[in-house]
């Protein structure tokens, strides 16, 4: 898989753009940029929500809303030849069957315009991309691509948009079985086993102590909302997933009304609107309930003890290994000053494999590729 280093930049800019939009500057002042301002976005089916200049990135950022479907587009124009596109859907699961993760794998296995088996693999080999990947977070699924070559970039955007909006896996149960789970029996005398790309991947994840720790912390701190289940998929639960549930999930969340799109770089911002509108205008707006509920505070501290796979310490004579973490459920609203100070002072100093203060909050939750 390719490097994930670009993602935090893409994701954080997409979801936290307002705090850095401090200094306004008219679009026209970016004279050196080869990009041009969009005169009339309504001609391309969009309305402008707001435009601001972000000095730190020397970028003009415009937030658009697609008039027909309500899809949001963050269009960032600057002189960076490394053009980036991202399609993001909020995909909060309510169980640990790994639907969002299996879907992330499956939509990249052929689409209406690109009915080949593995367009993603072909792109990895043949494209001039500088970044190409997909990520499942506990609450959203992201499809970012980047390229410095304009035509290559447009091709990538076309493949990705077609993949997320018109994937062949919705009618091809074999893709679901291949990427999700299926039974495998090579010899009649052998025992039947479960197989599947995501199933196997998650077996590996569940045997890693670090990932067990991270997941248990997250689920202990957020037991009542989507962060209380595993969007990646618990191998014990994955075989409960049916093809019907899988299709319903795509129908529910992979809709423009639940989508956020992102363009960045020196490409023509008019063309961005045109490309997106071509895909989005096929859909009708509809309400999508994908909001993540806030976790209620606990009346008292909780203590959770879990086990993880490890060697037999009695046989090896080694000391049994343990992890200990202290997690805080924080409020979106500020605490009063006294509690704020008490929180800071109460955080212990981390030491390897002993005490790890973990402040788990949605924006820092890990992604699964
Ligand atoms: Zn995966």
Notable traits:
369 residues; alpha+beta; eight-stranded mixed β-sheet; two-stranded antiparallel sheet; 12 strands; disordered N terminus; Peptidase_M16_C
What report would you give on this structure?
Residues 1-34 and 350-364 have low confidence and may be disordered. The strands form three sheets. Strands 1, 2, 3, 4, 5, 6, 7 and 10 form an eight-stranded mixed beta sheet that branches. This protein has a two-stranded antiparallel ribbon with strand order 8-9. It has a domain at 7-171 and 250-280: Metalloenzyme, LuxS/M16 peptidase-like (Cytochrome Bc1 Complex, Chain A, domain 1). It has twelve helices and twelve strands. Strand 6 and strand 7 form a beta hairpin. Helix 3 packs across helix 9. The chain has helices at residues 7-15, 17-20, 99-106, 119-126, 150-165, 173-179, 197-206, 209-221, 243-253, 269-280, 313-316, 337-346; strands at 46-54, 59-66, 72-77, 83-90, 129-132, 135-136, 140-147, 182-184, 193-195, 259-265, 324-327, 355-358. It is an alpha+beta fold and 369 residues long. It is globular. The chain binds zinc ion. Residues 101, 105, 198, 201, 368-369 line the site of zinc ion. Zinc ion is lined by residues 101, 105, 198, 201, 368-369. Keywords: DNA-binding, Homeobox. This is Homeobox protein PKNOX1. Residues 241-307 form the Peptidase M16 C-terminal domain.
């Amino acid at each position: 898989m390719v490097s994930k280093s670009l993602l935090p930049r893409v994701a954080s800019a997409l979801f936290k753009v307002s705090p850095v939009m401090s200094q306004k500057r008219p679009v026209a002042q970016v004279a050196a940029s080869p990009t041009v301002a969009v005169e009339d976005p309504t001609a391309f089916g969009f309305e402008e929500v707001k435009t601001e200049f972000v000095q730190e990135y020397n970028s003009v950022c415009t937030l658009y809303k697609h008039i027909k479907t309500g899809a949001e587009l963050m269009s960032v124009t600057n002189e960076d030849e490394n053009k980036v596109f991202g399609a993001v859907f909020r995909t909060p699961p309510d169980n640990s069957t790994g639907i969002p993760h299996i879907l992330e794998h499956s939509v990249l296995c052929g689409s209406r315009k690109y009915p080949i088996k593995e367009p993603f693999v072909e792109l990895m080999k043949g494209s001039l991309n500088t970044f190409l990947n997909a990520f499942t977070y506990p609450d959203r699924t992201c499809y970012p691509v980047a390229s410095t070559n304009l035509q290559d970039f447009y091709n990538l955007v076309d493949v990705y948009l077609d993949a997320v909006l018109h994937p062949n896996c919705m009618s091809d149960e074999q893709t679901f079985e291949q990427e999700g789970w299926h039974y495998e029996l090579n010899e009649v005398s052998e025992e039947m086993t479960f197989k599947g790309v995501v199933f196997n991947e998650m077996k590996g994840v569940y045997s890693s102590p670090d990932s067990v720790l991270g997941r248990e912390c997250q689920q202990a701190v957020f037991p009542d909302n989507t962060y209380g289940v595993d969007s990646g998929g618990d191998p014990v639960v994955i075989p409960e997933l049916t093809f019907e549930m899988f299709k319903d999930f795509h129908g529910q969340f992979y809709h423009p009304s639940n989508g956020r799109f992102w363009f960045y770089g020196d490409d023509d911002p008019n063309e961005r609107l045109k490309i997106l509108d071509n895909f989005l205008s096929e859909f009708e707006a509809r309400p999508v309930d994908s909001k993540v509920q806030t976790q209620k505070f606990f009346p008292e501290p909780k203590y959770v003890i879990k086990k993880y796979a490890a060697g037999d310490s009695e046989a090896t004579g080694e000391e049994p290994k343990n992890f200990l973490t202290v997690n805080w459920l924080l409020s979106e609203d500020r605490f009063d000053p006294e509690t704020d100070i008490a929180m800071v002072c109460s955080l212990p100093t981390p030491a390897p494999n002993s005490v790890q203060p973990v402040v788990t909050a949605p924006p820092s939750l890990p992604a699964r590729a």
